[in-house]
Design brief:
Layout: H1 4-10, H2 22-32, H3 42-51, E1 56-58, E2 80-85, H4 91-98, E3 101-106, H5 111-121, E4 142-145, H6 154-162, H7 177-188, E5 192-198, H8 208-219, E6 225-230, E7 240-247, H9 249-252, H10 286-301, H11 324-327, E8 333-335, E9 338-341, H12 345-351, H13 364-373, H14 377-391, H15 399-404, E10 411-413
Parallel strand pairs: 2-3, 2-4, 4-5
Antiparallel strand pairs: 1-10, 5-7, 6-7, 8-9
Length: 414
């Protein structure tokens, strides 16, 4: 049986160069060839095949199938369908696949994140969501989106204030991306949604930003529940994020009853995620270590809280951020007789709850950015379990849908 890794090489699948979404169409078609969603990608995928002089035959009994030799293949049998917007490196997808879901569409702007996503899921996400026609997205049960943090984060607001730039929904480059979520929900009418953003979203602009979000969702006919949750209940990291959940009122009633699950008691210690023998390159230079100490002293004298974070190995760390690649200051690991060290990318993955088999095909700097921007997988899955239970309380796929998830369409590539 042909392996996906061999197939991708034959068809020159390289996410870094997929500026026109051709590889996104192809890989989405392959992932969805067993379902009606394939029709959304078939025309462009067939054209891609022709470029490589591969004949595409229809109406035959042979199955188009190969071994998905990737860490997180889509399961043949699924309970619901979802789309993964602002997908990053796929933390939300891992959680919802584990809950029995099938991803029928993904979108991510950053090309290096797309590289990591494809390495783990065998799918190249579509690019710039502002250029995606909502009519080109397959039907789905749950819309999932961790929309960009920068306009609403404390650091982002401070930086843009200092530069005299607009921020939040006034930020013309990112702030309105929420409304791309709105237009997709409005057109596709999924049964439910889950959105993830930074803690500061709730208080941004004296609460006006959050009120706009709630109003937009409610106007579409959905319920709106939210909770600020901390990753420390699942991993040894203090990381608060706003999780928003909603269901269609015409399906689940005007007074939708949904309750966030109670968080388990924190039980993880930071030392659990550390690797035994990290490479010397992760130890800070004496020069950088001196600079960070002097910088912290200077701000302490001014009454500011800026400074490095020397982590208690028996406790939990500060929040891992996308700026970690710069100096690693927020999470430093003490070492005897020498300067502290940064986390390795693999330790960053563990700190965010990614499975051991997750592949990191990018440079350390890109990996730091990616894990700093990612979700904490077990937190998302814990909340997602309650969402899926509510979703399926009035909806279970019938036998024909389940069967379609096991069967391949009668098409073959030669």
């Amino acid at each position: 049986m042909l392996k996906y890794s061999e197939f991708r090489k034959k068809l020159n699948i390289q996410p870094l160069s997929d500026n026109d979404n051709n590889q996104a169409y192809l890989t989405h078609y392959l992932q969805n060839i067993d379902s009606e969603a394939a029709s959304y990608f078939e025309e462009e995928a067939t054209e891609y095949f022709r470029k490589f002089d591969i004949r595409f035959r229809q109406g035959k009994q042979e199955k188009f199938n190969f071994n998905w030799d990737i860490p997180f293949p889509t399961q043949d049998k699924y309970r619901f369908k979802f789309i993964d917007l602002f997908a990053g490196i796929g933390g939300i997808r891992i959680a919802y696949q584990d809950l029995g879901g099938k991803c029928v569409y993904s979108s991510e702007y950053d090309k290096f994140a797309k590289l990591t996503y494809e390495a783990n899921f065998g799918e190249v996400p579509f690019g710039d969501i502002t250029k995606i026609d909502e009519k080109s997205i397959p039907d789905h049960d749950i819309l999932l989106a961790g929309f960009p943090c920068q306009p609403f984060s404390i650091a982002g607001v401070s930086k843009k204030n200092a530069l005299g730039r607009k921020h939040g929904f006034l930020d013309e480059t990112q702030g309105t991306l929420f409304f791309d979520i709105v237009r997709i929900i409005d057109h596709k009418r999924p049964r439910a949604f889950m959105l993830e953003n930074v803690k500061n979203l709730v208080s941004h602009d004296n609460g006006n930003t959050f009120r706009v979000i709630q109003k937009a969702i409610k106007v579409l006919g959905y319920s709106f529940n939210f909770r600020v949750l901390d990753s420390k209940h699942f991993v040894p990291q203090h990381r608060e994020r706003t999780i928003m959940v909603g269901f269609r009122k015409d399906l689940y009633g005007e007074d939708v009853q949904f309750a966030f699950p109670e968080m388990p008691e924190p039980s993880r210690s930071f030392r659990e995620i550390l690797q035994p023998d990290p490479l010397p390159k992760y130890t800070l230079t004496s020069h950088l270590w001196s600079y960070l100490q002097n910088y912290a002293e200077k701000h302490k004298a001014k009454g500011n809280g800026f400074g490095f974070g020397l982590t208690n190995l028996d406790g939990i760390s500060r929040t891992l951020s996308a700026r970690y690649y710069k100096d690693g200051a927020e999470i430093l690991i003490p070492q005897k007789g020498k300067p502290p060290r940064r986390l390795t990318p693999k330790e960053c993955a563990s700190l965010q709850g990614f499975p051991e088999k997750f592949l990191i095909p990018v440079s350390d700097n890109q990996a730091y950015r990616q894990f700093g921007n990612s979700v904490t997988v077990p937190l998302i899955q814990f909340v997602g379990n309650s969402i899926v239970n509510k979703l399926l309380s009035i909806y279970e796929p019938d036998e024909s849908e389940i069967a379609s998830g096991r069967q391949r369409m009668s098409k073959s590539v030669h």
